[in-house]
Design a protein that fits this description.
By secondary structure, this protein is mostly helical. It has one domain. It is built from eight helices and no strands.
Length: 188
């Protein structure tokens, strides 16, 4: 029996790596293959189409520069007056319009990028041409969202900004250091 085990045991251990090779998880991109634009998932496409923030203005949001969308959602708790509400709604509308246009440009570039690879025609030069434009487009989209936060903070009082920070759960609601226009200005 021992000679049999001595011959069989090494063969069993050789099988372990083969089993492990087939026990891997699918790529996190596998589900995007059926997406309208395979380089993006369905949520990313919808957010770009709808002018949504996608976290692009996080630098503003986390540093006491409220977002127009959330200010409008919290208007009763913040005690916005009619003039403030109208101004914030105008900022939101303008930002949304610009973000949708820029989002569509990004989607077209992503579609082109995907098509190049899908067709087998991808070259370094062709990819550089697309990505050299795609990078700045993404930066412009982020700028659109950040600028809306800058415009929004100027419409609110210091108390409203502090209350916004508390309502959004950002912890320390203390005003920023000197140079903070939102802690000294109120409604325009």
């Amino acid at each position: 029996m021992r000679p049999f085990l001595a011959a069989v045991l090494p063969l069993l251990f050789l099988q372990v790596p083969l089993v492990a090779q087939h026990d891997h998880e699918a790529s996190p991109y596998a589900h995007t293959q059926t997406s309208e634009i395979p380089t993006l998932n369905d949520d990313e496409i919808a957010q770009l189409r709808n002018g949504e923030g996608m976290g692009l203005a996080r630098a503003a949001e986390l540093n006491r520069y409220p977002g127009s969308k959330h200010v409008l959602e919290l208007d009763d708790q913040l005690g916005l007056d009619e003039a403030q509400r109208a101004l914030v709604a105008a900022i939101r509308s303008q930002m949304s319009g610009k973000a949708i246009v820029k989002g569509e440009e990004i989607l077209r570039a992503e579609q082109h990028l995907s098509e190049l690879f899908e067709s087998g025609a991808a070259t370094q030069a062709a990819i550089a041409c697309i990505t050299d434009h795609l990078g700045p487009m993404r930066g412009e989209l982020q700028s659109i969202h950040l600028n809306a936060h800058i415009k929004t903070v100027d419409i609110l009082t210091a108390e409203q900004v502090t209350h916004y920070v508390e309502l959004r759960g950002y912890g320390d609601a203390a005003p920023r250091a000197s140079g903070d226009s939102s802690t000294t200005s109120g409604s325009p």
